[in-house]
Specification:
This protein is of the alpha/beta class and about 270 residues long. It folds into two domains: about 1-180, no CATH class; about 195-265, no CATH class. It contains eight helices and 13 strands. Strand 12 and strand 13 form a beta hairpin. Helix 1 crosses helix 3 and helix 3 crosses helix 4. The protein starts with a strand and ends in a 7-residue tail after the last strand.
Length: about 270
């Protein structure tokens, strides 16, 4: 667990969450981000209020769970949405079949929506879009969201479990944020939103001699929030760090405006 960032910094991250484009196309489902954007337009102070509620709380170490907490705070502090449930378990007798990320009621229409959330980062190679953990791929995540997670609320078991609470799902929506990192080539797959945020990646060999700013995992969504005074390293130190930890490291460079990843020489086979 880790403490939430200071209020102002977290408000910046929540504003990014509301404004950023989707990573994956939501169709055939609705785009849950449109509801968050609607609430932010109605109340520009929404990110600041949501950030204040999170400030000082112990946050999970996994950035995906931090993302879920931030979305929940935005929903809870909005005027037009109500958070009905989080991580709602679907059970068949005594066996848990899965969970629904969020149940959100749109107070304008009165409808109850099943939301699934994902904050992801993928690096393009000729064969796949790999996550920093190369066991995770864009194609696999896309399939899991569209064929398992979002349809789950319409299963017989889910309908029965929801009905026991007096709930009926009126629709399903997807909320994705993150970034795709490009190098020489990548699969021309349809699983990318046309306005997705972009970056670059390079192997930890032949890097130019310069100062790099290492971006802690907690700042991957908003790399500009990284503390330059404590995370600046030279090229040799960066290479040693990447190879020692055997995992990609996000960095900022004066040579490029977007963030990038420096990856071990053996990646994605690490």
């Amino acid at each position: 667990m880790m403490a939430a960032p200071a209020g102002g910094t977290l408000a910046t991250q929540l504003t990014w969450l509301v404004q950023a484009p989707p990573l994956l196309p939501p169709a055939p489902w609705e785009d849950a981000g449109l509801w968050l954007h609607r609430e932010w337009q109605r109340d520009p102070a929404l990110p600041s209020r949501a950030a204040e509620s999170l400030r000082g709380q112990q946050q999970p170490g996994r950035i995906g769970l931090q993302f879920e907490n931030q979305v929940a705070a935005l929903v809870e502090h909005s005027a037009g949405l109500a958070l009905v449930a989080r991580n709602f378990p679907i059970r068949d007798e005594h066996r848990t079949l899965g969970e629904l990320d969020m149940l959100v009621r749109d107070l304008d229409s009165g409808k109850l929506w099943h939301w699934e959330l994902a904050l992801k980062f993928y690096l393009g190679t000729p064969d796949h879009w790999y996550g920093p953990n190369s066991r995770d791929t864009l194609a696999r995540k896309f399939t899991h969201l569209h064929e398992q997670q979002l349809p789950r609320s319409q299963s017989t078991q889910a309908r029965r479990t929801l009905a026991a609470e007096g709930w009926k799902i009126d629709g399903r929506a997807l909320l994705t944020r993150g970034r795709l990192f490009y190098r020489n080539s990548h699969p021309e797959q349809p699983e990318r939103h046309p306005r997705h945020e972009r970056g670059w990646w390079l192997p930890a060999r032949g890097l130019p001699s310069q100062q790099w700013q290492r971006v802690p995992r907690a700042c991957w969504a908003c790399p500009s929030m990284s503390d330059k005074s404590t995370n600046t390293i030279d090229t040799a130190t960066l290479i040693d760090y990447v190879e020692e930890h055997s995992r990609p490291v996000m960095v900022l460079s004066d040579l490029r405006p977007e963030p990038g990843f420096i990856v071990p020489v053996t990646w994605p086979n690490t």
